[in-house]
Every structure is written in structure tokens, then in C-alpha cells.
Amino acid sequence: MGDLAETPTIPLAARQLVDQQRLGFVATICKDGSPNLSPKGTVSVWDSDHLVFADLDSPGTVANLERDARVEVNVVDPVLRKGWRFKGRAEVLRGGPRLEQGLRFFERAKLRDAPKRIRSLVLVRVEKAAPLISPAYSTGRGEAEIRTEFWSRYKRLYEPRSQTRTSAVSPQEGAR
Ligand SMILES: Cc1cc2nc3c(=O)[nH]c(=O)nc-3n(C[C@H](O)[C@H](O)[C@H](O)COP(=O)(O)O)c2cc1C
Q1: What is the reported pTM?
Q2: If residue 146 lies in a helix (H) or strand (E), which one and from where to where?
Q3: Is the pLDDT of residue 21 over 70?
Q4: Which domain holds residue 75?
């Protein structure tokens, strides 16, 4: 959304992944100290140091963040089996110029009825970004092989005429 700083907290590779995937899992801390984890399909890069996602229906996440700003967001490419994890602090935007800027961003990003549906925006100041890589790579396989394996797995799952839908995933595959 914004400009890139010279030494961004969010590296270019992480920025590209978030732009492509958009789906992130957001971990917050509940009042009783237990974890809360929920998916957000609107995770986007705001600028070099910030992510943003739209609160469309996330009362638990938002309440947790308003009490305790600590947050972790994971974004993973399910086919390449790689991703990024972001640790930081969140601010809930309910008004003001940054909310307006964010609403325009989500309208341009074609989030249907963005201004009507967005209750607030969650702006995450990323303090640490670290890559995630599946142990599938520790078997010596490269990106091309992993991509082929998991792309065909998803194709088997979603192709309408697939006969093997329920048996497509071996227990071994499911664990990775
Ligand atoms: C794939 C997927 C994407 C989602 N994206 C969002 C989102 O971008 N924003 C949002 O507020 N809720 C989104 N949701 C819905 C919330 O995750 C869901 O309402 C959840 O129960 C909210 O829990 P929480 O209040 O603990 O955050 C999504 C759900 C799924 C399954």
C-alpha cells in the first residue's frame, strides 16, 4: 500500500507472499491467557513495517487486541509449503485518515462493499518477520518437486470429476 523503506521490517519476499496469498492466521491472547487463532483473508501489506487486515467479523480478535496489542500473523503458500510469520503489535482503527486510506485500499482491492462491511481495520506494526519452511524440504526435494506434489494433491481434491476425493490425502501427506 505504502512506500518501501530502505531496510524494511517486512522483506520484499514476504511482501510478495502476502500480496499473493492474502490469507493469514492471526493469533491473539484472550483475557484468561488462552490463545485465539482465526483466519483473515484480507491480510495485506500497508507499508514496509505494517500489515493490515479488515475486521469484517472478528469480535474476539479485536477485543483481544484492544486489551493486549501483541499479535502474530502467519501467511503460508499451501502449494509451495513456504510462508512468513510476523510478530508485532496491533492498533485497531475505528476512524480518522488512516481508516479512510485503508477503506479506499480495500475498495481498490475489490473487497465487495468494503466501506459497508468493514467494522474497523487492524494495523499491525511488525517487529519481527521470519520465514517458514515445511519439513517436506528437509528430504532434499526442491521447490519444483514440492510444487508438483502439492499442486496435484489440491487438484485431486477440487477437480469436480475426481473419483478419489476422500482418499486423495495420505496420512503422511496430511501431516506436513
Ligand atoms: C478463509 C477465511 C477468511 C476470513 N477472512 C476474514 C477477514 O478478513 N476478516 C474478518 O473479520 N473475518 C474473516 N473471517 C472470519 C473470521 O475468521 C471468523 O468470523 C472467526 O470466527 C472470527 O473469530 P475471532 O472473533 O476470534 O477473530 C474469515 C474466515 C475464513 C474461513
Answers
A1: 0.89
A2: helix 143-158
A3: yes
A4: 12-133
CB-ligand 1 contact for 53 (6 Å cutoff):
yes
Provide CB contacts within 8 A for 120, sequence distance 6+: 55, 62, 92, 93, 94, 99
Query: Are 93 and 173 found together in one domain?
Result: no
Query: Does 4 map to a domain?
Result: no
Asked if residue 48 has its Cβ within 6 Å of ligand 1, the reply is no
Residue 25 clears pLDDT 60, i.e. is over it: yes
The rounded Å distance from CA 74 to ligand 1 centre is 14
What separation in Å is there between the alpha carbon of 171 and the centre of ligand 1?
Answer: 28
Computed on alpha carbons and rounded to an integer, the radius of gyration of the chain in Å comes to 18
Residues 121 and 159 in one domain: no
Answer yes or no: do 68 and 150 share one domain: no
Query: In whole numbers, what is the pLDDT of the chain averaged over residues?
Result: 91
Q: What is the CATH number of the domain that holds 56?
A: 2.30.110.10
pLDDT confidence band for 172 (50 / 70 / 90): low
Distance 58 CA to ligand 1 centre (A): 6
